[in-house]
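Dissemination and training. As part of the outreach component of the grant, students in the summer workshop were shown how a complex can be specified as a set of sequence lines and then modelled as a single object. The example used during the hands-on session is reproduced here so that future cohorts can follow it. Participants entered these lines:
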Amino acid sequence: AQKITQTQPGMFVQEKEAVTLDCTYDTSDPSYGLFWYKQPSSGEMIFLIYQGSYDQQNATEGRYSLNFQKARKSANLVISASQLGDSAMYFCAMRGQFFGQNFVFGPGTRLSVLP
Amino acid sequence: NAGVTQTPKFQVLKTGQSMTLQCAQDMNHNSMYWYRQDPGMGLRLIYYSASEGTTDKGEVPNGYNVSRLNKREFSLRLESAAPSQTSVYFCASSESRQGDRGKQYFGPGTRLTVT
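and obtained this result:
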């Protein structure tokens, strides 16, 4: 079975500072993908970043980067230079390539950016 | 490009009533999904359709049925609504179920209350 754990129910960060949101996962699939989504208070789910388990480099998308440590089964999201608009729920998700091809989501972390 | 659209946005049902949630995507995606999101939890998969003509159960299918009407449209039906089905329902689609092309695009959600 696949499982995603996000141990930080809520986080605070000062505007313009960097913040790391934790995500650990468990899977027996030899190949898998990891995804991060943002859900602002308006409710929509917005795709942020993707990391494949065999990708050689950590993924980056603008101010978002993924700190992928395969041996530790962690895929932490790093947001640099936080902005007020980054205040939202953040969900980590994974999908296996062979044994479990459906998304499994973590419970989410609520990030609040302080002015 | 509208992306993924869902109707209705809000719905209130009485216990035992039935209704269908509609979802359509205009990205020519092969795979479509229905999720529910309950407070304090991540998204849980109800049903999915890997490709046109196929549907399969997800994690929480009881009390729901689906129809993949064509490549664009995927509907979710509640035959006899129960208060436990009060939730926010999201439809999503993806190009495929592999790798980066497996990233899912979400609709705006339907907030359903069953009294």
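Chain B has a mean pLDDT of 94. Students were then asked to discuss how this feature might be tested experimentally.
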